[in-house]
Amino acid sequence: MDPHNETNPTDRRSSWVMNFNTIFGVGFVVVSIVLFLIIPDQIAKPKIVFANSGNDLDASFFPQLVAGGFGILGVWLFFRSFSIDEVNEVRLIDWEAFTNIAVTLLAMAVFIPLLTRVGFVISGALVIAFLSTFFGNRNYLLTAVVNITVPVAIFYIFTKLLATYLPPFPIDTILTRLFIL
Amino acid sequence: MWESFIEGFGMAMRLDTFAIMSVGLLLGMFVGALPGFTTVMAMAILLPLSFFLEPLIGIPFLLGVYKGGIYGGSIPAILVSMPGTGAAVATTFDGPALTKKGKARKALEMALFSSVFGDLSSDIVTILFIGPIAIVALMIGPPELAAVLFLALIVIAATSSGVFVKGLLMMVLGLFLGMIGQDPIGALSRFTFDIFPLRAGIPLLPMLIGVYALPEILFAIEKKSTGAIKQVVSSREGGRLTFQEFRESFRTICRSTVIGTGIGMVPGVGQVVAAFMGYAAAKDASKTPEEFGKGKLEGVAAAEAANNAVNGPTMVPLLTLGIPGDNITVILIGAFIAQGLRPGPQLMEEQGPLVFAILVAMVMANILFLIIGYFTIPLFAKVVMIRRSLLLPLTVVFAFAGSYVFRSSSFDLMVLVFFGAFGYLARKLSFSVTPMVMAFILGAELENSFGQTMALSQGHVLRYIFLERPITAVLLVATPFLTYLMWRRSMRLRHALEDRVASPDSLS
B222 to chain A, minimum CA–CA distance in Å? Predict the structure, then answer.
């Protein structure tokens, strides 16, 4: 449908090769089949039906439409993929970029349990210290100042100003427990 | 409608609204001035703050971030030829050349004045348009709403990415993700895979922050920062902009405002295209086109007026029909939903004064923007030098805090990280996430209105639509044609943009 993304018709023969869009086309067809198979199990049945007129929309109607949509569009993408001139930029990710992204995602994954266990301020400070050093910051004095002030500021904005909850400092929890006891 | 406007005007005249808008403007300008940090990212990260404030505080705050961010992008574009946001790319054609000539201050002030003029004019046009459109919107029932939502989703899928079928697939994926949890009619659980937190569905806020903010961070850290920009030409260098210089560019500013306002009404096109089109039109109309790209104030004015004029019109479909036209308004709809407000015909009917109050706040934000921008230009010029290696981890921590506070759930943080990685890969593979997020937000409404249509039709949907609901029938028949027209128009704009970027001679 997009003339500018299509290759020159004279080059068409050479472009009839599989690319990442072809694989995605097949993948979406597979998703469609899987969805059709799991719909009966993954949609709860009403336990009691009051005065159903028979015209009400079944809870599985839209999921079936979506599953059908994945199938039809997957087939469309499969055939369309041979004339799409796009670069798979994932393959262009070099080792440095891959390492940086993997380490960042890993730090985020570690941040999740850390946040609830040691509190927002301490876990936040640890994550900032680690990531900023990893990203190349060597001004440790500045890092230390930022490590202390920013998580505390964010903590107080959310908990005091906006009256929401963030896991507090462990010392807060300990003091509260002692006070209650 | 007039009464609603008057009441809304009164509601908007609050000191705390002005104060929070000023904070939003400052934060937006700060983030916009940082090369590599986008306005969308700023809005996504700051979105949680608006959730816990009342609507007339929280939403103007985000609007301030939006307006400040778009302008803020022009600061590094002019000073160091590094656009702070995509919308400021066209500003780099003349901005840095003006800086080299010692006219940095003039360029920054021209960017400010033309931004404010473009934005203010388009906001006034928006207020004038929204009333009549809202009156029409009030007349629509469930069948028409279903047809409009369907049309909107298809159009966004068509215009938001280069390949139509990939946009459609992302839309279908968004519909699927929106189904996880409970169905909107019978509240029956769907696709929960026995995971308890999924019973409430995928949370919107972590998803928005995930797909719009985290990928920006991941893109920024692909290459480790080489440190701050060492030398920035002083923003104070050179004289101030004179009235004569502004007047000489006034025709260009007006032309770019019209272009930006027009482009703002086309879903999925946005500020980048508007800025390039505004710049190209100014060059075409100029008696001295050869001076463009060599440091012409008119070039800065053309790009900045056009990209800011997009801001207002994108609010029309959002507020009248509940349809966000681009990724910025997708984030805004998230703020409305979190406030318990559902943009659309009902909102205009039930909360008309509030809608007008928000629009009046948009207009007032421009006046604040002019004052704040004028006095803080030297300050934000220094922001360009801040180290990304320190700011990126802070953004991560703020994103986590914002995602956590909404439901105090670790599961939401997992959703955040998942959608962050997903958004990054989607962009790398040329899949646009905007149709997915829009379908995720609008899917339940579409299913609900379709369900109501089914009930109203008593089993004879086609007969009911074609005999009793002519507007729905017209909308459904027109959907393929409108989609094709919108797709062609957005493709033309994109290709014109690509051609001009590919051949800089045509621009400079």
Answer: 4
